[in-house]
Write a structure and sequence with these properties.
The chain has 491 residues and is α/β, with parallel strands linked by helices. 32% of the residues lie in helices and 11% in strands.
Length: 491
């Protein structure tokens, strides 16, 4: 009996430590490691913070809410991080984040243990790489500026996947093509030289290309088309035979210049962002997208085995969503794995729109990840315990290929596409639809966008949301009509 009691006490003590298990393992050998010191104060606390915020701001306009939320997040970080830097004597090169109140830095095991004792530190997460730079670099190719022609689908091929979700009717019946919407592509870079993308590449209005200066004062030099937060360089163009970011971008906004329209929102702007490596780089990507005016961010990747760091990602996502950035991610390609670990990060986060998938016959391909998602074991959350868990995905796109994709060259298509498939391509169907919705109504809050997408989807399984297809197949036409209807109510 005594042994059992001791075991419980030790387990409880270990569980209460503020050092993440991944960080603890890293410092056992006496090596310094990169960490994020999460500050005690955050905009949201625990699982109820974000839902309560949504209720309280039900009538808010996204365009008015964004600057207020960003200002609030920055104010919290500025005050708290100044105190923490002084208290812990952090190195000057320690990088502050504002999306979450946290400081990223590399510390010795002794310094990490000391930081864990501070009442101003909520938790210590692994940061992943903390690259330095942003003060030099060049964009390898700057496109000549030209006045773009208005989009027209006349005489162009419209693939079956765009017709199946009603995107073509959004263009023809509602005259909405994505104009005015900005889609951040958190991916591997984009070949913006491609004829079907070059008119849709976002340009930083405050930056002059390749003058070696930080013209807009955001701490980054020559971020003309976006930025690579992995290398801290402005080069975001994709090269080589396998261009994941070019493929996903084509589904969002390929305008059919070469004869085939591949994009749901053929006049939306694309903001290429790169940030693989860990939560620090991901936070910088989110911050950039928010400050530079992105409306939606497509994240066609899936990260496993994050443990409690899933909670840090969730906090980042909830803060970003509150500030008006719609987050979209494909559900992943891991159906062969046991539940509940199939939907990873970021798609497993409640406020992130997880795009599952069906084929042309409305059947689920054998690789598509299914729900539910477990959050009961994650520090600071503990909601959605198994066996019920969180129902995911949210809606479905088309991951199974069979429709044209952009080629890796500067023009042309992979058509027929009989080889490339994956939920990386379900997500852009949703992101493109969101761009159309924002083209219709910029004031919709990010969480309201998700609600509309779910309520207008075409149910494919048992009535209501399920862990196979969510609420069903994406319905772009119905979603944009709903966005327009809400705009009329507020006029």
């Amino acid at each position: 009996m005594l042994l059992a009691l001791v075991a419980v006490v030790v387990s409880s003590t270990a569980q209460e430590t503020k050092i993440d298990p991944q960080v603890s393992r890293a410092i056992r050998g006496g090596r310094s490691t990169g960490v994020i010191l999460l500050g005690k104060r955050q905009l949201f606390e625990g699982p109820k913070g974000f839902p309560n915020f949504c209720v309280q701001n039900k009538a808010a306009k996204r365009t008015e809410l964004r600057p207020k939320i960003i200002a609030r997040l920055k104010a919290i970080s500025k005050v708290d991080q100044a105190k923490l830097r002084k208290e812990l004597k952090l190195p000057k090169e320690a990088e502050g984040l504002w999306l979450v109140n946290g400081i990223a830095t590399t510390l010795s095991p002794e310094a990490i243990r000391m930081a864990s004792k501070s009442k101003n530190v909520k938790y210590i997460y692994p940061s992943g790489p903390i690259p330095r730079g942003g003060i030099s670099g060049r964009v390898s190719e700057v496109l000549p500026k030209s006045k773009r022609k208005a989009f027209s689908a006349k005489g162009k091929k419209i693939p079956w996947n765009l017709k199946a979700v009603g995107a073509d009717k959004v263009w023809s019946e509602l005259k909405i093509t994505g104009r005015g919407a900005v889609v951040a592509m958190f991916d591997s870079g984009v070949n913006y030289r491609h004829a079907d993308l070059r008119d849709n590449i976002w340009i930083n209005p405050g930056e002059e290309a390749n003058n070696g200066k930080d013209d807009d004062g955001n701490g980054l030099v020559d971020d003309y088309y976006g930025f690579n937060f992995r290398t801290m360089q402005p080069e975001v163009i994709a090269t080589g035979p396998r261009q994941h970011g070019t493929l996903t971008s084509g589904i969002v906004a390929g305008d059919g210049t070469g004869g085939t329209v591949t994009g749901l929102a053929p006049e939306a702007k694309l903001m290429p962002l790169i940030g693989w490596g860990g939560p620090y780089a991901a936070a910088r990507v989110h911050e950039y997208a928010l400050e530079m005016g992105a409306d939606v961010m497509n994240m066609s990747f899936s990260i496993p085995n994050l443990g409690h760091t899933r909670g840090l990602w969730r906090l980042m996502s909830e803060h970003a969503t509150a500030a008006g950035l719609v987050l979209v991610s494909g559900a992943g390609n891991f159906q062969r794995e046991p539940k509940p670990v199939q939907l990873r990060i970021p798609e497993g986060i409640p406020c992130v729109i997880a795009a599952g998938g069906v084929d042309r016959d409305m059947k689920i391909p054998g690789f598509v990840s299914l729900g539910p998602v477990e959050w009961g074991s994650v520090r600071f959350y503990g909601d959605y315990p198994m066996p019920k868990g969180l129902i995911k995905p949210d809606v479905c796109g088309f991951p199974n290929g069979g429709y044209p994709l952009l080629s890796s060259q500067n023009k042309g298509y992979m058509d027929p596409n009989v080889r490339i498939r994956g939920n990386s391509f379900s997500g852009p169907h949703v992101a493109g639809t969101v761009a159309l919705m924002f083209s219709a109504n910029q004031d919709l809050t990010a969480w309201r966008i998700k609600e509309i997408l779910e309520s207008t989807a075409k149910d494919l399984g048992p009535k209501g949301k399920d862990n196979d297809t969510g609420y069903g197949l994406l319905n772009s036409l119905a979603a944009v009509k709903a966005a327009l209807a809400e705009k009329k109510k507020t006029q």
